[in-house]
Design brief:
The protein has a single domain, classed as Rossmann fold, CATH 3.40.50.720. The protein contains five helices and six strands; from the N terminus they run E-H-E-E-H-E-H-E-H-E-H. By secondary structure, the chain is an alpha/beta fold.
């Protein structure tokens, strides 16, 4: 499988490395050339420096042949737009976007975009932990 990952921060770099470890081909896009360091010296894919909002950058990353596309920058707007471009213009079969704002993640998911909302996940985990603590405290009382 060939995957294009946009954003080479902690999330994007980890996803790219995990995919490589599983035997997949991966190209990574990031505006910051120093982000390449997160991938290690022996990264077998291609690193493309530039703004993923530019189709020329997406095309240098070979988006036309991508089986999957991951939008993992630190900006919701960027992730949403490039995910829609990957899905609608380049017909990438599987597109996923990290969206930090829970209401926006829900809205775009309802529009058919696969979204992951780490903020929603954190809220749910914290609520669950608090409920467990409250229940335990009630039993001890």
């Amino acid at each position: 499988m060939f995957v294009v990952v946009v954003g080479c921060g902690r999330v994007g770099a980890s996803i790219a490395q995990s995919l490589i470890d599983d035997g997949h081909d991966v190209n990574v896009i990031d505006q910051n050339a120093e982000a390449l360091g997160r991938l290690g010296d022996d990264f077998p894919g291609h690193f493309i420096q530039g703004p993923a909002l530019e189709t020329t950058v997406l095309e240098r990353a070979e988006i036309e042949r991508a089986d999957a596309f991951v939008a993992a920058t630190n900006g919701d707007n960027t992730n949403i737009v490039i995910a829609q471009v990957a899905r609608d213009r380049y017909q990438v079969p599987f597109v996923i976007a990290r969206v930090l704002d829970p209401s926006r993640a829900k809205f775009y998911a309802e529009q058919g975009l696969t979204t992951i909302c780490p903020t929603r996940t954190a809220i749910e985990m914290m609520e669950s932990a608090l409920r467990a603590f409250v229940a335990e405290s009630a039993e001890d009382a």
